[in-house]
Amino acid sequence: MNYRLYYWSVLFRGDFIRLLLAEANEKYSEGTSEEIMDLKSMSPEEQPLPSMAPPFLHDLNNDIFLSQMPAIVMYLSEKLDYLPKDAFKSAVCLKLILDSNDVLAEITN
């Protein structure tokens, strides 16, 4: 396994990450609800990276933790060579991810 994803077993923000990992044929595992609550319950000083809520991603090969769906998707996209090299096109990719995150925020309001 290269990654461990911590997200609830519902269709939502975690699916952007799941789909990207599946598209890249990356092996990953998923944390349990208990593990998510343990990470979420830690004080910011104890957390691997101060975070408020899942999704969390642990890059096992580099021992890196990330949170926030847009940050995780951009990190994986760069690492898995899915981002265009052109700065404008890369910025448009980020815009689309942030637009998706905004839509999800509106759905939950």
Structural write-up:
With 109 residues, the chain is an alpha+beta fold. The protein has four helices and four strands; from the N terminus they run βαβαββαα. It is globular and about 40 Å long. The chain has one domain: Glutaredoxin. The protein has a four-stranded mixed β-sheet with strand order 2-1-3-4. The longest helix has 22 residues, at 87-108.
Describe the structure concisely.
The protein contains four helices and four strands. By secondary structure, the chain is α+β, with helices and mostly antiparallel strands. α1 (13-23) packs parallel to α3 and α3 (69-79) packs antiparallel against α4.
Give the spatial strand order of the biggest sheet.
Answer: 2-1-3-4
Shape: globular
Radius of gyration: 14 Å
**Strand tally, please?**
4
Helicity range: 40-55%
N- and C-termini, Cα separation: 36 Å
Mean pLDDT: 94
Structural class: alpha+beta
* CATH fold description: Glutaredoxin
How big a fraction of the residues is strand?
A: 5-15%
Q: Quickly name the level 1 CATH class.
A: Alpha Beta
Structurally, the number of domains stands at 1
Q: What string gives the helices and strands in order? A: EHEHEEHH
Which labels suit this protein?
109 residues; alpha+beta; Glutaredoxin; four-stranded mixed beta sheet; 49% helix; 14% strand
Outline the fold blueprint.
Layout lengths: L2 E4 L6 H11 L4 E3 L2 H9 L14 E4 L4 E4 L1 H11 L7 H22 L1
